[in-house]
Design a protein that fits this description.
The protein is built from nine helices and eight strands. It is an alpha/beta fold. Bound molecules: adenosine monophosphate.
């Protein structure tokens, strides 16, 4: 099954798409994670993407499309995959449909995580991420056992540069102007499933599996 997760920054896309991928035994592909890895590895793509990302702006469509095109052709994607954070613009959504149509494939479901915008800023400001394994914490809602360090591997936790308040505002604006219109695009042909993304994490995961018919 080929699935897209989309929603505002801080809606829980990353956490929930990883959980759903683990349940359905298909890879979860996050363009944000891929770009952060490219920055860490100092690749040409990372160098081009970094300034956009740090400021909270979207990376240009052509860079993202190249990245995704290559990734979904890999052998672990044959049974399907979950896209997290892609598409984020109408150009990307249309390009994805075209890419898949060429392979006689289609995108079956789009999970839209709906959340009160007021909650989003608090979630993002308090987010901390393990510098080694990427596990996410929240200073108030999901604190690690030892403050500042990952429960899984003991590595230090860090704040993403784009989780600073100034970048958060730019990201929310980019979401509102460029990504939110995707809801209409996918609702038109019945692929959109809206899921209420507030409350208990396990309960939200169940709502998502329900929306996927599991
Ligand atoms: P995320 O981890 O999904 O919050 O993405 C972090 C940042 O990576 C975004 O604010 C963008 O700068 C960039 N990014 C990730 N996915 C995309 C995409 N599909 N299109 C453009 N920029 C993206």
């Amino acid at each position: 099954m080929r699935i897209v997760f989309f929603g505002a920054p801080g809606s829980g896309k990353g956490t929930q798409s990883k959980r759903t991928g683990a349940t359905l035994l298909i890879p979860q592909l996050s363009t944000g994670d891929m770009l952060r890895a490219a920055i860490k590895d100092k690749t040409a793509l990372g160098a081009k993407a970094q300034s956009y990302m740090d400021q909270g702006q979207l990376v240009p469509d052509d860079l993202i499309l190249g990245l995704i095109h290559q990734r979904i052709k890999a052998s672990d994607c044959h049974e399907g995959y979950i896209l997290d954070g892609f598409p984020r613009t109408l150009v990307q959504a249309e390009a994805l449909d075209e890419m898949l149509a060429k392979e006689d494939q289609s995108l079956e479901r789009v999970i839209y995580l709906e959340i009160d915008p007021e909650l989003v800023v608090a979630r993002l400001k308090g987010r901390r991420v393990c510098s080694l394994c990427g596990e996410e914490y929240h200073v108030d809602h999901r604190p690690p056992q030892k403050p500042g360090f990952c429960d899984k591997d003991g590595a230090p936790l860090a704040q993403r540069p784009d989780d600073q308040e100034k970048s958060i505002r730019v990201r929310l604006e980019a979401y509102h102007n460029q990504t939110a219109p995707l809801a209409q695009y996918y609702a038109k042909d019945g692929r959109l499933a809206s899921v209420h993304a507030e409350g208990d994490i396990d309960e939200i995961s169940l709502r998502i599996l329900n929306a996927l018919g599991h």
